[in-house]
């Protein structure tokens, strides 16, 4: 399957391939018979050898795409580690920029557009400074969109540990 880098997105133009990838794994956004992937989604699919990404006529290998994505998005590596891990665990994961979070995560078996995401997920590096204001802001975002807060902490080896935070009324 072929994708083309357009700004900070990757577009799959082949209608049949785009539809197949979207229907099978709910990757990206399907509009006007094209599939638009985020750089995180595209790199994940390149890593799994399900997608080849081109910039003009040049094919971008995994390392080149990773370097380019990291230049475009400062927190790319941490976000990618979390995305890759949660996808490998069988969860559908979509961007959550409109919520001010990194990702929306759907419970296993749920379908975006039909079901609502269960969590909003923030990806953080284990070395990040994490104060109570930031934590409270994350909690407010999750609570305001009626989702549980999930924090994915990435260590120096790229392993991810998750913490779920929920409101509890006494």
What does this structure look like?
The chain is an alpha+beta fold. The protein has two domains: 2-72, MutS, DNA mismatch repair protein, domain I (3-Layer(aba) Sandwich); 76-165, Trna Endonuclease, Chain: A, domain 1 (3-Layer(aba) Sandwich). It has five helices and eleven strands. The strands form two sheets. The chain has a six-stranded mixed beta sheet with strand order 3-4-2-1-5-6. Helix 2 runs antiparallel to helix 3.
Helix content: 25-40%
N/C terminus separation: 52 Å
What portion of residues belong to β-strands? 25-35%
* CATH architecture identity of the largest domain: 3-Layer(aba) Sandwich
The whole-number mean of residue pLDDT values reads 92
Q: What is the top-level CATH class of the largest domain?
A: Alpha Beta
Strand order of the largest sheet: 3-4-2-1-5-6
Shape label: globular
CATH-defined topology of the largest domain: Trna Endonuclease, Chain: A, domain 1
Number of helices: 5
Q: What is the string of SSEs from the N terminus onward?
A: EEHEEHEEHHEEEHEE
Secondary structure tally: strands = 11
Number of domains: 2
Low-confidence spans: none
Main beta-sheet strand count, sense and barrel state: 6 strands, mixed
**Structural class given helices, strands, pairing?**
alpha+beta
Radius of gyration: 16 Å
Observed structural traits:
6-stranded mixed beta sheet; 5-stranded mixed beta sheet; 34% helix; MutS, DNA mismatch repair protein, domain I; single chain; alpha+beta; 170 residues; 2 domains; Trna Endonuclease, Chain: A, domain 1
């Amino acid at each position: 399957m072929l994708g083309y880098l357009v700004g900070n997105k990757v577009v799959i133009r082949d209608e049949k391939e785009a539809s197949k990838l979207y229907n099978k794994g709910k990757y990206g956004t399907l509009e006007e018979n094209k599939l638009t992937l985020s750089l995180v989604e595209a790199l994940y699919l390149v890593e799994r050898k399900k997608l080849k990404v081109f910039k003009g006529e040049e094919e971008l290998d995994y390392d080149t795409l990773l370097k380019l994505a990291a230049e475009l998005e400062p927190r790319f590596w941490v976000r990618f580690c979390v995305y890759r891990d949660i996808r490998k665990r069988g969860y559908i994961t979509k961007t959550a920029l409109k919520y001010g979070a990194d990702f929306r995560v759907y419970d296993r078996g749920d379908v975006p557009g039909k079901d609502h995401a269960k969590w909003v997920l923030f990806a953080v590096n284990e070395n990040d400074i994490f104060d109570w204001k930031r934590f409270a802001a994350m909690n407010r975002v999750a609570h305001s969109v009626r989702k549980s807060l999930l924090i994915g902490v990435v260590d120096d080896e790229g392993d991810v540990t998750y913490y779920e935070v929920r409101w509890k009324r006494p």
